[in-house]
């Protein structure tokens, strides 16, 4: 369904409605505003969408982490003046308003790799155990055609019948001298 069907048709009095509707569709609709709430949009973000994400690839999110509160407004008034007058707690509150974690916090190496490695090793051990079980219990002995004596007899028979004399095994046999042809490079 095209977006033109959603725009109401009408006369000039509906022109403002149509313009608002078109602007709403172009900006992503009301779903984005419902998702981010009253948080401030401060940048472009990833692909132009106002979403919050702590990432090293895009270190400055498009929206602030928290919504504006009255105590934050008071600190913002102090922020407009000299930063030396701000206490350390005020600076931290301003930072935590904009960001969920510091750069070091979200780059911290978590020990989840141990669980992944453990599960992977368990799966390898189970696979090896099943392979050994199948090899010993399910599969029988190798057929007698795999014995060396039988394989050489089969090769002699293929040479006698001249099977595939152009590119196969018979092409490498010299029938005049009754031996393998020498490899010439």
Automatic annotation (TrEMBL):
Top-level division of the source organism's lineage: Eukaryota
Q: Name one GO cellular component term.
A: mitochondrial inner membrane
**Keyword Cell wall biogenesis/degradation attributed:** no
**Gene Ontology MF annotations:** oxidoreductase activity
Q: Which UniProt keywords apply?
A: Membrane, Mitochondrion, Mitochondrion inner membrane, Oxidoreductase, Transit peptide, Transmembrane, Transmembrane helix
- Its transmembrane ranges are 115-134
Where is it localised?
A: Mitochondrion inner membrane
Q: CDD domains per the record? A: Cyt_c_Oxidase_IV (cd00922)
User: Would the keyword Cytoplasm be found if you checked this record's keyword annotation?
Assistant: no
Instruction: Give the UniProt record's GO annotations in the biological process aspect.
Output: mitochondrial electron transport, cytochrome c to oxygen
Where it mainly occurs, coarsely classed, is: mitochondrion
Q: In which pathway does it act?
A: Energy metabolism; oxidative phosphorylation
Q: Give the bilayer topology.
A: Single-pass membrane protein
- Annotated Pfam families: COX4
InterPro entries (alphabetical): Cyt_c_oxidase_su4, Cyt_c_oxidase_su4_fam, Cyt_c_oxidase_su4_sf
Matching SUPFAM superfamilies: Mitochondrial cytochrome c oxidase subunit IV
Instruction: Give the protein's biological function.
Output: Component of the cytochrome c oxidase, the last enzyme in the mitochondrial electron transport chain which drives oxidative phosphorylation.
What is the protein's quaternary organization?
A: Component of the cytochrome c oxidase (complex IV, CIV), a multisubunit enzyme composed of 14 subunits.
Q: Which family does it belong to?
A: Belongs to the cytochrome c oxidase IV family.
State the name under which the record lists this protein.
Answer: Cytochrome c oxidase subunit 4
Q: Which gene encodes it?
A: LOC108045194
